[in-house]
Amino acid sequence: MVKARRVLVVWCPDWPAVAAAAEAGVEATRAVAVLAANRVTACTAVARAEGIRRGLRKREAQGRCPDLLVAQDDPDRDARLFEPVVAAVDATTPGVEVLRPGMLALSARGAARFFGSEEAAAERLVDAVAAVGAECQIGIADELSTAVFAARRATLVPPGRGAEFLAPMPVSELAVEPVLAAPQRVELVDLLHRLGLRRIGDFAALTPAEVASRFGGDAIIAHRCARAIPERPPAARPPAADLTVEHRCDPPIERVDMAAFVGRLLATELHTRLSAAAVACTRLVIHAETEAGEELSRIWRCAEPLTPDSTADRIRWQLDGWLTRRALDRGRARASNSEADDWDSGPNAAITLLRLEPVEVVSAGALQLGLWGGVGEDEERARRALVRVQSLLGGDAVRMGVLSGGRGPQERITMVTLGDEPVPATDPAQPWPGRLPEPAPALVLTNHPEVRLEAVDGSPIWVSDRGLFTADPAHLHWGSSSWRLTGWAGPWPVDDRWWTHRFEHGFAARAQVQLDAEDATRLRALLLLGYNQTWHVEGLYE
């Protein structure tokens, strides 16, 4: 029987707020909150005691706690200030892997052997983190995901008891930790709640076949997490040596902006090689060498395959942390040295070589095209850009669509100002008899341009008293363009909200027409809305 590989996770609670407080130089007893898109994303325990919660608007949070220190979300700051914590843990027990700023993991087996037991290792790591001015909680379990949950509860889970430890937790816990869950995990949790699966143990009781046949791919990962088994199998083979990329820095890198530029170039080169090999990286070693011959190395582990942008971010964060820490060390050495001639006698922090080495890769099929372009790009980056646009143009200038209930495509979209609660005008879960069948149009037109629908003989087509076309559609004219039709569906009478006098003659109908592929270059089909004896384009299918 193979002994389980135990994982130890170090978690610094509320790290974005702790880092913001440290950068501002305020005391730990001060209430601090970090905001993104004008909403609280993290806060200290003191702030929570004053009623501050995640998701609160800035004004409401300040109303609950007038003394609240507000800081903006800054991943660079979080990573830079987390580097001393990582270095302290790595000096105590080598082999650290950074999961995100505020959380790291390492093998519990080596630490337990060195310090005598897992409990003793946890105590030593807590002391090591406290020595650099931070607080942490330790969790140990058989699997990484279970150890993350254990760290959030400062628990050491006995071997083989992971599923039992997770079972009584609310199923919403599966979507709390960004290291383990993508943003869309919230939708899965909401669905599980509506199905009556309120605890992680209830979800784990389902068979893998039931989960795979009824839910999406993320649900399979969440189900493995709920059962305390590995979310993804180990890499079948080690990465090829030719995937490693490196850059000789001439002149040496001493500033963060120079490091960020070189890091982005290396990230692009790395992902070019990964793409050629049809693989994606999930664990990456960032290695650097200094002018004094010192070697620095750090492992970053990611729940999802790295993208070029996320790789460049981690390189920038890591080099920023290294350069900043070396600069502080040199500053303290200078301050303690009374002879000015010896100020620069210490090791130089300038980086002469930078190397990226993938240590775990998965099939490129694990990548998914992101909504905002690129492969798996983080939507939060796009949201921050939209918030900047909103600050320039006004609050109502940036709006987003929310799926609503309705029969027509335009009725099923509720436009909500960015930052407001995404509440639909009508409930999309309710039954809507007569709703337009799927798929929905790729583009919905609000101006309803007029078109002409004709039969083979060129006569116009309308809807008869029996709800049928007066003739088979054969051609469609839209301005100066004309297409032959190869198929159609409908018409479907539109008989709702008659009391609003939406249509002059009190009758409307929808129909779908398919354009001839030889005539249409991009368009494939149109959704037509007929009223006032005329057909109009309501949607485009591509």
Automatic annotation (TrEMBL):
<dbReference type="GO" id="GO:0006281">
    <property type="term" value="P:DNA repair"/>
</dbReference>
<dbReference type="InterPro" id="IPR043128">
    <property type="entry name" value="Rev_trsase/Diguanyl_cyclase"/>
</dbReference>
<dbReference type="Pfam" id="PF00817">
    <property type="entry name" value="IMS"/>
</dbReference>
<comment type="function">
    <text>Poorly processive, error-prone DNA polymerase involved in untargeted mutagenesis. Copies undamaged DNA at stalled replication forks, which arise in vivo from mismatched or misaligned primer ends. These misaligned primers can be extended by PolIV. Exhibits no 3'-5' exonuclease (proofreading) activity. May be involved in translesional synthesis, in conjunction with the beta clamp from PolIII.</text>
</comment>
<keyword id="KW-0227">DNA damage</keyword>
<dbReference type="InterPro" id="IPR050356">
    <property type="entry name" value="SulA_CellDiv_inhibitor"/>
</dbReference>
<comment type="similarity">
    <text>Belongs to the DNA polymerase type-Y family.</text>
</comment>
<dbReference type="InterPro" id="IPR001126">
    <property type="entry name" value="UmuC"/>
</dbReference>
<dbReference type="InterPro" id="IPR043502">
    <property type="entry name" value="DNA/RNA_pol_sf"/>
</dbReference>
<protein>
    <submittedName>
        <fullName>DNA polymerase Y family protein</fullName>
    </submittedName>
</protein>
<feature type="domain" description="UmuC">
    <location>
        <begin position="29"/>
        <end position="148"/>
    </location>
</feature>
